[in-house]
């Protein structure tokens, strides 16, 4: 392997990201839901760019864009996604796609470098229609029935209708060809402030946390808010609030160093100002990369529910509705990213888990996978103010391309 | 005044209530929303019955049924409502209307008794389209603009459309004629278990509690549930739960003997499982018949909010969105009901406030008003299992008619 620095063109990377930012621009971010006009424009723009990187482009039957190489040697798959959350940031997704495109440009067209980078844009990582649909389709985990049932969760529009309007109806969905790739590499903004606050440039992702989700129910007794004395009430909402506070008090002593837990949704039934709620529910989520920690926390959750039920007056039930499997990133990939960072980012890298889900966790089921993070200003995520400095974007692109070269060199 | 017992016909009272129960029957209760077919049938049934009680019947432009007398002497207005909550009980409303009808029958047709009872069925006491619309219209407190805007809160159907379909479009709305009535009397099931558990037959309502309602807001910081460390979160949902628990801990020492408070609705924004809520809101209600108690509790609520804001990390704001005015029932009416109970219910009566709202609180704004309660089995309210024993229903009817006679006798 040559030690010469790859001719990564930082200005070109920034220009490409700026082009994508122009499709569906919203304030300083973008509004680019899956299969919206700006999203489709982004997919076609990418397909048009791929040949320059020595790749033939296909947009498949689920909206994945795949660039394939005929160059001899090993092949590394790299990419991310192009749609955004509603009214969200410009880099969440596009950064990883453009890094992959730039790495493909500088590696695939250089006959002195063995092997090639193939570029992927996975459709709907942001979950407008489902959960990681594009990458899951690629690994063979999405049935036709799932697509039949999928609807845009903001608008209710059926996925089949969106595919038809996008001109993708009837196209084949491309699935992974076993043995074609040595692995998958993805870059992403950190979505947290660890790198920024530590003055670091590169996060070497060790694992993507699993998400365990629970529906916690509180059964009380619905009654009239004016005529039911306080002493005889069985208020499901109050039981929920007490349980919420108990979790907050008890979890810190039982969690791991990076565990997070969140109550994102609460409902009281019937939800009227003059009726004591007879039923309440909270949607509760735990994330960690260590199943043993989760097991401990789930036991604690269940024992808190038993205590609350025994203490009364409401019955508390805990139902697990989603079981996460943490995805371990491959040590070869850690090593490639870290080595590239040592020379191109003055070693300002840190090993860290990803608290958010990414397509890499899906690809990791069928091939070695790795991820690198770049800093995100203020750790902002899923909001249009999300941003990363130009210098960090360019450093990330250099490290990414160099990591690709090192992985292809074996 | 003759001391002879009024010829109240218990069997007729029960038969009339059973007839009304047959319109929109649901399990052992009724489903009779305002302007539904069974509700309209009930209004027309009542209008057809009124002449027999010496009253001319009108259904006015808001669906109030009013029976007017030409008999010389004082006039007492009496009634309640005929629609029900969704899938609710058979007596909540109809009981008071049939008591009024029966009192009118035995008083208006007896030339030896001076004066008459006029019967009213107030439309939409249950609030499908608004708040106490029928009685508020009668006292001149409902504008045409309010009716233009009113919609059925279950179905979204505009009130104007419902009035047109009911054949009431363009009819005048009857308003109170100053000086026509010596006052208003209403009977209702208790909607609580005080009478039943005390072995009592009649509640002498002293006041109808006021309802104060608050919107309590929690401003935190929306963020990613996977990438935001616990230590830096500003979770508006958790702030809400802690505030809810603080109210539960602090209110009992500051409240009055019959104060009740309720959180009927909670919302977290954006309400997604993987997003830390940046904003949360609770709809909080306090009921009491003593404004001084409410003042004390509202001060406590505001000081809890200040404490929570000072303690952080979320800002808590308290906004009063409804100011209740407790309605005092007239002492002459207490006395008439109590005296009637002494002879006809063996004195098994109790003075008590009403924790629920009733049309009587609206009528009390323009004339002396009174209410009597009959026991409700198990205190059930707003549910189809609501019931009262036949014996208690008949006793109530006798006491009601006798109280009417005493009030008319001055």
Automatic annotation (TrEMBL), chains A, B:
Sequence positions that bind Zn(2+) 2: 92, 126, 382
UniProt signal peptide: none
This protein's record includes keyword Manganese: yes
Superkingdom: Bacteria
Quaternary data: Homodimer.
Name of the protein this chain belongs to: N-carbamoyl-L-amino-acid hydrolase
Residues of the Peptidase M20 dimerisation domain: 209-310
Residues the entry annotates as binding Zn(2+) 1: 81, 92, 188
Keyword Ligase listed: no
Cofactor: record remark: Binds 2 Zn(2+) ions per subunit.
Enzyme Commission number(s): 3.5.1.87
Cofactor(s) needed for function: Zn(2+); Mn(2+)
Cited Pfam families: M20_dimer, Peptidase_M20
Keywords: Hydrolase, Manganese, Metal-binding, Zinc
Gene Ontology molecular functions: hydrolase activity, acting on carbon-nitrogen (but not peptide) bonds, in linear amidines; metal ion binding; N-carbamoyl-L-amino-acid hydrolase activity
Family: Belongs to the peptidase M20 family.
